[in-house]
Amino acid sequence: HLIDKGNYRHFMEKEIYDQPEAISDTLSHYINFVDNRVIAVSGDIAFANVQSLAISACGTAYLAGLIGKYWFERYARLPVEIDVASEFRYREIPLSPQAAALFISQSGETADTLACLRYCKEYGLKTGAVVNTRESTIARESDAVFPIFAGPEIGVASTKAFTCQLAVLAALAVAAGRARGTVTEKEEQILVERLAEMPRVMAQVLDSIQPKIERLSRELAKCRAVLYLGRGTSFPLAMEGALKLKETSYIQAQGYAAGELKHGPIALVDENMPVIVIAPHDRFFDKTVSNMQEVAARGGRIILITDEKGAAALKLDTMHTIVLPNVHEIIAPMIFSLPVQLLAYHTAVFVGTDVDQPRNLAKSVTVE
Ligand code: G6P
């Protein structure tokens, strides 16, 4: 069928707004909404018996995997080794056949990720692929396929594939937790109920934040460099925000763990560099606030992305605050992805780049 932009100016914009539907389609394959249980989809991967998980991927898919690591470790108590595929394949990692390996790839054709898959199979690991293209090489060669149902993604900068990858990883982590006895039936129900709310909350956020994001993006477009900070799962999301901004607007951007601020990036802070802080009101919030105070004390311009509880608890002047609804921490990374993606998108539009096809980048990298 014909793929068009509909009423949107760019595919990236359309794909950002596609997310409630894409997430809903994806979740319906992993969640039984009637009894709030995860569907047993683990195929050939027996999470109950594996001793660890190895994840490899490239680009945005790698950052989805990094968030997945937090979930598998927390909910399934499963140690996760993760690296970008181009490093993973050459590191000579001591892999045990008791480990399982996951490969995350929108296209299912990324050369380095495919090489990791073949490498892990040689070591006798069970393999699983989180892909958007079921007819892809990575899907074909994996023992288990965990498809996302994002639909075609045309914009080079990945948006809906990222949040759908996260939705699948979250469901798999809960499934693994159930299999391993680290998530009780009651906890599973709560987590699944929260996951099920995601499309509705996403639609609500997308409906309301655009005017504010546009105002902010107009200012960001004039900047030469931007720093993103976060803790916990907001740390990989900070890296994803920086990646999205640099890919689409060519503005130098870096994502850092907020706790590393003192170990380098604070040297960059002055009144010219915006610092985008991703901080839901979770167990890290107070620590992130103290990092923001350090930025503010040096004249840094803070753009805070938080939730209602965070905004109410804050006693600090930020340049701008984007306030999202309060959500459970298992869906926070997907919900907080929305302002992060929209900031990159609108900034790129103000800079005037070729948003869907940024210079030098390819949608799918099939050579090493
Ligand atoms: C390219 C794309 C990115 C993508 C990465 C991995 O760099 O521009 O958007 O995240 O490849 O692609 P994959 O298809 O393996 O997810």
TrEMBL record:
It is found in: Cytoplasm. It catalyses: D-fructose 6-phosphate + L-glutamine = D-glucosamine 6-phosphate + L-glutamate. Its EC number is 2.6.1.16. Residues 43-182, 216-358 form the SIS domain. The active site is at residue 363. It comes from the Bacteria. Its main location: cytoplasm. Coiled coil: none annotated. Keywords: Aminotransferase, Cytoplasm, Glutamine amidotransferase, Repeat, Transferase. GO terms for molecular function: glutamine-fructose-6-phosphate transaminase (isomerizing) activity. Homodimer. Catalyzes the first step in hexosamine metabolism, converting fructose-6P into glucosamine-6P using glutamine as a nitrogen source. This is Glutamine--fructose-6-phosphate aminotransferase [isomerizing].
